[in-house]
Amino acid sequence: MAEAVSLWRREATFLTAMLASETGIVGLNTLFKAATSKGLNSYSFLGYSYLLASLLLLPSHLFSNRSRSLPPLSFSILCKIGLLGLVGSTYVITSYIGVKYSNPTLASAISNITPALTFILAVIFRLFSSTNH
User: Fold this and answer.
1) In the chain, what is the greatest distance between 2 CA atoms, to the nearest angstrom?
2) How many whole angstroms separate alpha carbon 12 and alpha carbon 108?
């Protein structure tokens, strides 16, 4: 019985995190459209949102149960981090430029396609296999 309650709490935690994430995305899209229609530069908005996210996530390492030892930082890992940062920031910039020319409702609807595209890319790159259970 205790195991079922633990599983329920874990699933509820994931559901709450997903709902908070989607609510934040919709809120940011709406806030972006309102701010840019009043004259704020889109790159300034991105800088402010990244700064706010950094300040909110900064204390999260205090609550982490991970060990404090890190693996060595190699050139390959630095290149992968840089590529991920480049692709991620390009994705955010292009989505905000799309919101600038359309509306936040369309951006929120299109963002729901992201899990399907992620699954398709995982199948293409063979990261998902039906034999792994």
Assistant:
1) 57
2) 23
CA count, 13 A, side-chain hemisphere, 122 = 10
The first and second tokens of residue 68, run together, are 């404090």
Give dist(CA 25, CA 68) in Å, integer: 31
The single-letter code of the amino acid at 24 is G
For residue range 81-92, what is the model confidence (pLDDT) as tens digits?
999 989 888 888
| pTM of the predicted model as reported, rounded to 2 decimal places | 0.64
Residue 78 is predicted with a pLDDT of 92
**Torsion angle, CA of 89/95/100/104, rounded to 10 degrees?**
-130
Asked if residue 104 lies in contact with residue 30, where contact means CB atoms within 8 angstroms, the answer is yes
CB burial of 112-133 (b: ≥16 within 10 Å; e: otherwise) equals eeeeeeeeeeeeeeeeeeeeee
Q: Say how far apart CA 106 and CA 70 lie, in whole Å.
A: 41
Retrieve residue 100's tokens: 């600038």
Q: How far is CA 58 from CA 44, 52, 54, 64, 77, in A?
A: 21, 10, 6, 12, 22
Beta carbons of 42 and 97 less than 8 angstroms apart:
yes
